[in-house]
Amino acid sequence: MIDLNIDMRQYDCPFIDTTDDVDIAFSAVQWQLDTDAEKLETRLIARGNSPGTLDTGLQTLREHRNMSDYYLLSRRGNVAQIGTVIEQTNAMKTIQRHGGYITGPFQIENGREHWHVGFDDDDAEDRTLADLERHNDYDVENRDQFGASTLFDLLENADSARRLLDGCRSLTETERKTFETASRFGYYETPRGATLDELADHFDISKTAVSMNLRRSERKLLGAALSALSDVDDEETPL
Fold first, then answer.
1. Separation CA 13–CA 21 (nearest Å)
2. How far apart are CA 117 and CA 130, in angstroms?
3. How far apart are CA 162 and CA 156, in angstroms?
4. Is residue 236 pLDDT above 50, yes or no?
5. How far is the C-alpha of 106 from the C-alpha of 44, rounded, in Å?
6. From 3.40.50.10320, 1.10.10.10, 2.30.110.10, 3.30.200.20, which CATH number describes the 157-231 domain?
7. Strands 112-119 and 137-145
8. Is 239's pLDDT higher than 70?
9. Rounded CA gap, 46 and 169, in Å?
10. What value does the CA radius of gyration of the chain take, rounded to a whole number of Å?
11. Fewest CB atoms within 10 Å of the CB: 80, 147, 150, 204?
12. Is 109 exposed, middle or buried (0-12, 13-18, 19+ CB in 10 A)?
């Protein structure tokens, strides 16, 4: 199986057009493509820069010419869960026509959409990408090719992967930046490429504050890793 991470700009997509005009982002939760009716039914999370921006974005989305149905499922502040039915876009038709399929959730922000698209072989991939160029703008950001055993292992351990992802998402912006910078500067190498004093100078805060930010991020990530590790379905190693 071939899996592509594609940064896409479609010119007939209601979600992309809406994020072009309004500071709003969409993340797909569930989706179902009806190829006979040429429609895509989707459940999404919409996040606006503010409650007022969310109102404007949802109104813009409802009024789009390719929007067949729209309904609000829930809302809290500047975040809403919505259901939509849209006309099948050119990119959807192209991928489906050449035997491709959506393999993961998609996100839309700032007029661009991130897709995960799968193919069974190189020929289907090549035909699809060549055809997509005619009516869409895209960049392939990542390409992975999995064998059956690798794919089975990924599916079997999806819960462990989710725990790791949840751990990463639990970091505050300050914790994430501190941890990433410390790693990039070689703080975790042997010998250390950077000291706490140097990190404190970089962030213009005290050595104690840097240490606390690192400890919090390490505790969260280590906890997520240990939780995931306990669920990994490894084969027993013979003694």
1. 13
2. 15
3. 12
4. no
5. 10
6. 1.10.10.10
7. unpaired
8. no
9. 18
10. 22
11. 204
12. middle
CA 113/CA 106 separation, integer angstroms: 7
pLDDT digits (tens, 9 = 90+) for 110-157: 999 998 888 988 899 999 999 998 888 999 988 876 545 555 555 566
- Provide the mean pLDDT of the chain: 87
195-205 average pLDDT score: 94
| 224, 185 contact by CB (below 8 A) | no
Check: CB of residue 26 under 8 Å from CB of residue 129.
no
Q: Locate CATH 1.10.10.10 in the chain.
A: 157-231
Reduce the secondary structure of the chain to three states and give it as a string. CEEEEEEEECCCCHHHHHHHHCCEEEEEEEEEEECCCCEEEEEEEEEECCHHHHHHHHHHHHCCCCEEEEEEEEEECCEEEEEEEEECCHHHHHHHHCCCEECCCCEEECCEEEEEEEECCHHHHHHHHHHHCCCCEEEEEEEEECCHHHHHHHHHCHHHHHHHHHHHHCCCHHHHHHHHHHHHCCCCCCCCCCCHHHHHHHHCCCHHHHHHHHHHHHHHHHHHHHHHHHHCCCCCCCC
142: tokens are 């990542």
How far apart are alpha carbons 36 and 44 in whole angstroms? 22
Tell me the residue length of the chain: 239
